[in-house]
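Hey,
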Amino acid sequence: MHPTSDANQRIARISAHLQPSNFQMGESSGLSRENCRAKGGAPGFKVAILGAAGGIGQPLAMLMKMNPLVSVLHLYDVVNTPGVTSDISHMDTGAVVRGFLGQQQLEDALTGMDLVIIPAGVPRKPGMTRDDLFNINAGIVKTLCEGIAKCCPNAIVNLISNPVNSTVPIAAEVFKKAGTFDPKRLLGVTMLDVVRANTFVAEVLGLDPREVDVPVVGGHAGVTILPLLSQVKPPCSFTPEEIDYLTARIQNGGTEVVEAKAGAGSATLSMAYAAVKFADTCLRGLRGDAGVIQCAFVFSQVTELPFFASKVRLGRTGAEEIYPLGPLNEYERAGLEKAKKELASSIQKGISFIRK
């Protein structure tokens, strides 16, 4: 191909992407809104971040701009997205970045997305539980999920907005109402619990955290967070005191950060890191990589509860396989009963919010 015509084609492709209004999508072209995948400057996936100007959203957007699997990055929020978009768009990586401001631009932000990451909502302040966030964040998640159901019903959804134990059931109910619910594609992000568990266990064992893998099951708040320390890799043993210390620290990791920040927010940087780590596993699954396994809070038959976090295998359609909990010791079995009790009421709270 002649070099200039190749360059012109690339420019046309990028400008069509940046100013879609110049690109008339008539039905005659065979492109409908749902299956049009305008390519950016790089091969890869189209990712939207909803809540991109927030405490988690900004570092999350920066890290996703650095991910080579992302070709198009849409940043949506109700405030400040133009500035964040301008800033991040200057990074010399492959992903093309576009910003969307306010609810009237939500549908444009979502159309054609492969993966939608939702950190939107208010953060915890000292003295607040994740449940105190419920009333505000529940409404936000409902609105955003209605947009997803309409504009990109086949996208994989990574839900971060707390309380995850209730917002994931809310999202499921919204998708059910719209007739688009696919349990494999709705994933509550509990990755920060795994990241913390790996870090704290590695400290106790004197290992590099990158060599440690701790399964964390249950939910994503307090006692619903159940680290399975008997299943840590590499295999190791802990004293009863270490088990108590590690379990409590992993369960209260969020509160530790909220208190340390003393009113200036909650865990945003480690959460963004964990979210990107999880999103990357989703994108590798979408790409068709084999053996991509991670913990997530999903629609599940592992226990009698409708939603539960455990290890899942991620593939082209989301969570393609959900793994059982495996052998639990007595301490973990007792912890599981406690976790299920609290989790049941959090799940019900989310369902009732939509069905009320």
